[in-house]
Design brief:
With 272 residues, this protein is an alpha/beta fold. 38% of the residues lie in helices and 18% in strands. It has a domain of 180 residues: Rossmann fold.
Length: 272
């Protein structure tokens, strides 16, 4: 995605690559565990929606092998284009464009729909792209479930970090993000006609990657925070210094992962 499309965290900025690396360190293991759970294997046809960085698509490419197919799509493919292993990369807007040629055994999106204003249309597009019996795995944050980046708010540096995080989420809301979307995923997958729906959550409480992610995120949105009177340059400088000195136990928003299978029958239960 790009900022031109309403996405706050512009993929064209240098910090985007740092954010993708940190997100990979924090969440790839959980994502790959869900892929194993649905049984992805050699020969599968997979669509990675809103790929962002290359790590998930590259893992899928290795798993499905030369007899399979992995398509990685995004509005901005600047970083996804570094994926290897025969991964196809295509510029595509999941909310507005028709599904790419399929059908697919697996469709996956991580940290995509929470940011997409037309998220209902995007979900329908992903469901329609599944083959009968195919799996949809959707993973999205739910910041409203746990709004503090420093859950242990014991001092002024932690209080400042939480104020800045509140400002960042206000920017997201103004861009149309749904900060309580993750919790609705199981219901939405069932309402879309999928079966065998389950969900769980991943919630890193402190990690070096959390600090890397926070510093890169704040640097990306610094100008917007100041312009919106949500933070001052002095506050941001102090916060970044505290992050880089390792004085904060930084968390992430809970990542809700939900998965379901398209019925093996005629698919008449699916959303239109």
């Amino acid at each position: 995605m790009s900022q031109d499309e309403g996405y706050l965290l512009d993929n064209r900025q240098a910090e985007a690559g740092t954010r993708f690396d940190a997100l990979s360190a924090l969440f790839d293991a959980s994502t790959f565990r869900h892929f194993d759970r649905v049984g992805i294997d050699a020969g599968w046809r997979c669509w990675e929606v809103g790929a962002g960085g290359p790590s998930v698509a590259a893992w899928l490419g290795e798993r499905v092998g030369p007899g399979g197919r992995v398509l990685a799509t995004d509005i901005d493919v600047s970083w996804a284009g570094t994926a290897t292993g025969g991964v196809e990369v295509l510029r595509h807007d999941v909310a507005r464009d028709a599904p790419p040629a399929g059908p697919f055994d697996l469709v996956h999106a991580r940290l995509v729909l929470v940011h997409v204003a037309e998220r209902d249309a995007a979900l329908r597009t992903m469901v329609r792209a599944l083959r009968p019996g195919g799996w949809l795995v959707v993973e999205d944050a739910d910041p409203a479930l746990q709004p503090l980046i420093c859950p242990d708010e014991y001092g002024p540096e932690q209080e400042r970090a939480n104020r800045l995080r509140s400002g960042f989420r206000e920017l997201l809301r103004r861009r149309g993000a749904d900060l309580s979307y993750g919790r609705r995923l199981p219901r939405l997958l069932r309402e879309a006609g999928l079966v065998e729906v389950e969900a769980d959550a991943c919630f890193p409480v402190t990690s070096p990657a959390c600090a890397v992610l926070e510093a890169a995120t704040v640097r990306q949105v610094r100008d917007q925070l100041v312009a919106a009177d949500l933070a001052t340059d002095e506050e941001i400088d102090g916060h970044l210094a505290a992050v880089e000195a390792g004085r904060l136990d930084l968390a992430t928003s809970p990542m809700i992962s939900a998965w379901g299978r398209r019925p093996a029958g005629d698919g008449s239960r699916l959303l239109p």
